[in-house]
Write a structure and sequence with these properties.
The complex is a heterodimer.
Chain A: H1 4-29, E1 32-33, E2 40-41, H2 47-54, H3 56-88, H4 92-107, H5 110-121, H6 126-133, H7 147-172, H8 175-183, H9 188-199, H10 201-216, H11 220-225, H12 233-242, H13 247-275
Helix pairs in contact in A: 1-13, 2-3, 2-13, 3-7, 3-10, 4-7, 5-7, 7-10, 8-9, 10-13, 12-13
Chain B: H1 9-30, H2 48-54, H3 57-90, H4 97-109, H5 112-130, H6 138-161, H7 166-174, H8 179-208, H9 211-216, H10 224-234, H11 238-266
Classes of the chains: A mainly alpha, B mainly alpha.
């Protein structure tokens, strides 16, 4: 077969450009930090992993990332599901436009969307100004540099990732099933929970994964909207690398994060191969 | 006839969702026309921040670098991604296919901090082995972005291939065309809209990337997001609002064009 002329060059590229860098992360995580350039020595030392497991900062940052990404994913689901359902049930001629409106923020600069919230949430920002105008608060609320702002930022930035896979699943759903439920006397609420929702679970899983994974390693949002109270792993890794210049530690953190993320990814893969 | 539950709840939630997605951007754009330096108090209409923006040499230099990086990396990603999507979508099972797919899609699913760190480790190791790239600048960033963009192009191309009849390429092969020629003359033209959409996506992702570029780039190269990030950390500035507005308008036009390419050709 002549398939090799297509497969070989791409495979070679993937091994060199993807597999090799990831293997280096693993290798350097066992190295030792030095003052040289590059600032590490090759070797087999478990020092970085020992520190990772003994220092509350790192384990705490991993736990914070999982918790904040988890709650944000749940909020995305609660907001995104009705949005996806509304688009599926909209008139066919409106659907393309509605989908475009969901996708447009995804194309728009991530940094700028986070920046937009910085202006709104500051003590002198528009949200506080509006609250004061209506006499709802006496003193400005602390809306930024805390976990609330990080959750808000993640939901805002990743909502399209939840809506799109949900839409894709809901759109393919056989309308006759729902019709049968109605014909058999099911109330809309009951028909939804017994027919629509269970059949949309693959979309829920895909959307949850697409939000949870990037959110758990997020750097920009906790850095610009978050405070010092609950550091997330992406930001800790960033500072370990740029401020402390401890490459082996940064690599160990990356390895730990990738290992943790492998769990939901493998579960999803199982689920998908089980359903198709 | 399907009976739909007639309820105003869903459209209301949808409208609220869109308000949530768009109001912050609209407000930010509105304040780019603010006379006052205070980004949150209205001081009258002005376009002076746009004047300052287009007179800001560092900003223009960074924008130039970002556009060049995005063009090169998107082109590289479109080339490799198209081949990769073709391999996954058409060539069936082959030894190592699972590893192939894993490596291809890993940059898309893993957090950017991991990808950025991995790319830098590769460049640093290469540098200590063969002395290249000593100055990590334009090429290093473009290469790193290409690794990221390839995954997205491949996914789009593979999805498009599912809608193209494999018999067309088989016919070309039956008529004596070599596999490479059959691909280039039959499949590739049919894939063109997907490749174009993938190129545009890779281009915007590169233009937008802060994290990977920050890890990879040396002291000499500052992309536009890196410059925006460092000035945003110092505080809000109406000039950034103006820049953001320009970018949002440009990107909206590109995204609209991309979605037109996708839909008009899909109808054929």
């Amino acid at each position: 077969m002549n398939r090799a002329i297509f497969i070989a060059p791409v495979f070679a590229w993937l091994l060199a450009a993807i597999a090799m860098p990831f293997a280096l992360i693993l290798a350097i995580s066992f190295g030792e930090a030095t003052q040289g350039a590059p600032p590490f020595d090759w070797g087999f030392s478990l020092a970085s992993y020992r520190l990772l497991l003994s220092d509350d900062l790192y384990l705490g940052a991993l736990a914070n990332a999982a918790r904040i990404a988890g709650t944000s994913t749940l909020i995305c689901l609660l907001v995104g599901y009705p949005m996806a359902l509304a688009i599926v049930r909209a008139r066919p001629q409106h659907r393309a436009l509605l989908l475009f409106l969901v996708m447009l923020p995804f194309w728009t600069s991530f940094l700028i969307r986070v920046y937009a919230w910085m202006g709104l949430l500051r003590p002198t920002g528009l949200v506080n100004a509006a609250l004061a105008e209506f006499g709802l608060v006496d003193a400005p609320l602390q809306l930024i540099a805390n976990e609330f702002a990080v959750h808000l930022g993640i939901v805002y930035a990743y909502l399209p990732f939840m809506v799109l896979p949900l839409y894709a699943t809901l759109e393919k759903l056989d309308a006759r099933l729902l019709e049968a439920a109605y014909d058999l006397g099911a109330e809309p609420r009951r028909a939804f929970w017994r027919v629509t929702f269970p059949l949309s679970l693959p979309g829920v899983a895909a959307g949850a994964l697409l939000v949870f994974i990037p959110a758990s390693g997020e750097f920009v949002i906790p850095d610009l909207l978050g405070g010092p109270d609950s550091p997330m792993i992406g930001r800790v890794l960033w500072f370990e690398f740029f401020q402390n210049r401890d490459w082996p530690m940064a690599c160990a953190l990356a390895t730990a994060l990738a290992a943790l993320l492998a769990v939901p990814l493998l579960l999803f893969d199982r689920l998908r191969s089980a359903t198709t | 006839m399907m009976r739909r539950p007639t309820s105003a709840t869903l459209p209301t939630v949808l409208a609220a969702g869109f308000a949530f997605l768009y109001l912050p951007i609209v407000i930010m754009a509105a304040f780019s026309f603010n006379e006052s330096r205070l980004v949150t108090v209205w001081g009258g209409f002005s376009t002076k921040w746009y004047g300052e923006l287009f007179g800001n040499v560092r900003m223009l230099e960074s924008a130039g670098l970002s556009f060049a990086v995005a063009t090169v990396s998107a082109t590289l990603a479109a080339g490799i991604g198209t081949l990769a999507g073709y391999v996954l979508g058409r060539l069936g099972r082959f030894p190592g296919r699972a590893l192939f797919a894993l490596l291809l899609l890993a940059p898309m699913v893993l957090p950017e901090v991991i990808l950025g760190l991995a790319m830098l480790m590769a460049f640093a190791t290469l540098d200590s082995l063969i002395g290249w790239p000593a100055e990590r600048g334009f090429l290093a960033i473009a290469f790193a972005h290409a690794c990221y963009g390839t995954a997205f192009v491949a996914v789009i191309v593979e999805a498009r291939l599912r809608g193209i009849d494999p018999a067309l390429e088989e016919a070309a092969r039956d008529l004596g065309a070599k596999p490479w020629r059959a691909f280039a003359r039959v499949t590739l033209p049919l894939l063109a809209p997907a490749v174009a959409a993938g190129w545009l996506l890779a281009f915007t992702l590169s233009l937008d990337d802060l994290v990977v570029a920050s890890f990879v780039s040396g002291p000499g190269a500052t992309t536009l997001p890196m410059l925006v990030y460092s000035s945003v950390r110092l505080g809000l500035s109406p000039q950034i609002n103006a820049l953001a507005t320009v970018m949002v308008v440009c990107i909206a036009c590109v995204a609209w064009a991309a979605s037109r390419i996708g839909t008009t050709r899909a109808k054929l």
